[in-house]
Design goal:
By secondary structure, this protein is mainly beta. The chain is built from two helices and 21 strands.
Length: 328
């Protein structure tokens, strides 16, 4: 087991059978502290392929109680698609960033809530974008987010990179800047994207992200491997990368991550909770089927970033390929 991060022995924490309404798969949870405990918003796929978010609450971050009905269902403009939420608390408000996939293209939505009972829609983006997450503090008086522009179809000669943008009010976004290119991530030759809400440390913002590797590009079968990485961004100007190890932080190894039933070899980080003692709970989707937990700390991740282990991936740069399949 890596000295930087450890899977929890109780994994998977949440399975489809734990969801008290129709569910075939549950994964990719957003995470935050709420009312002295823990809250997850879990992506749920129903037997009819419907999408919704389940509310899971816990006193210890390990044993979760699931609300009997979905907390959020797609709005009319989402046209049935509501997935991959990220959750960030700023002040006394919780912001839910999610993506939908209407015929017009993949779009980002931002909702605000204080109690996880009522929600205000603040923003609905133009196509095509997804995998957005907000920083937990304003920087230079502005809100900041990470996202990944993303078309409905894959084209390997187009970049699927992580971008940064800023906003005065969470409604109008600009100052868009490329943060990290997939071509710089050896294990992300298919695409990369931001994961959980960034974590503020004295040495910079810790940003956990995902990368998807496609081994050969010869057909449309599921052959991707999703891994988690981490980088350190400048506190005052997060468009600057202070450190980024070449090695992934977490890659699929456990049976629930390599489960071949649906999408094997997926570790997809979407929620991170910083404890008072510096420990970090990292919640992630495993094999697009279950919710899992890995534990690390601020000190471990800073050590990983600033004193990275030696790592050499067999492929240094991806080969371009023609259009593949609909996004997944």
């Amino acid at each position: 087991m890596s000295k930087y991060i450890t899977r929890h022995p109780a994994n998977p924490l949440i399975r489809a059978a734990d969801i008290p309404f129709p569910c075939t798969r549950c994964f990719n949870p957003a995470a935050e502290k709420f009312e002295g405990g823990y809250v997850l918003l879990v992506r749920v796929i129903g037997p009819d392929r419907s999408e919704s978010l389940a509310l899971a609450t816990s006193a210890d971050g390990l044993k979760f109680e699931i609300a009997p009905e979905p907390i959020l269902k797609p709005a009319p403009e989402d046209q049935g698609r509501l997935n991959d939420p990220r959750l960030t608390r700023i002040g006394d408000t919780y912001y839910i960033v999610y993506c939908s996939d209407p015929p017009s293209g993949i779009r980002i939505g931002i909702l605000a809530t204080k109690d996880f009972r009522s929600f205000e829609r603040l923003y609905y983006s133009e196509p095509d974008n997804r995998n957005a997450v907000l920083f937990p503090d304003k920087i230079g008086g502005l809100y900041v987010r990470l996202d990944r522009p993303f078309t409905r179809w894959y084209y390997q000669d187009r970049a699927y990179d992580i971008w940064l943008s800023r906003s005065p009010d969470l409604r109008y976004w600009g100052d868009h800047r490329l943060l990290l290119s997939y071509s710089d991530v050896a294990w992300g030759n298919n695409k990369i994207g931001p994961g959980p809400q960034p974590i503020r440390t004295k040495k910079g913002w810790l940003v956990i992200y995902h990368g998807a590797e496609y081994p050969d590009g010869t057909d449309t079968a599921w052959k991707k491997t999703y891994r988690a990485g981490v980088m350190l961004l400048d506190l005052e100007d997060p468009s600057k990368i202070v450190a980024r190890p070449d090695a992934p932080l977490l890659e699929p190894e456990a049976p629930y991550e390599t489960d071949p039933e649906f999408r094997p070899n997926v570790v997809f980080p979407t929620g991170a909770i910083l404890e008072d003692d510096g420990a970090i709970k990292l919640y992630y989707g495993a094999a697009d089927k279950t919710v899992a937990l890995a534990e690390t700390s601020v000190d471990q991740l800073l050590d990983f970033c600033l004193n990275p282990p030696k790592y050499e991936h067999p492929r240094k740069h991806p080969a371009f390929r023609p259009p593949l399949s609909r996004h997944a």
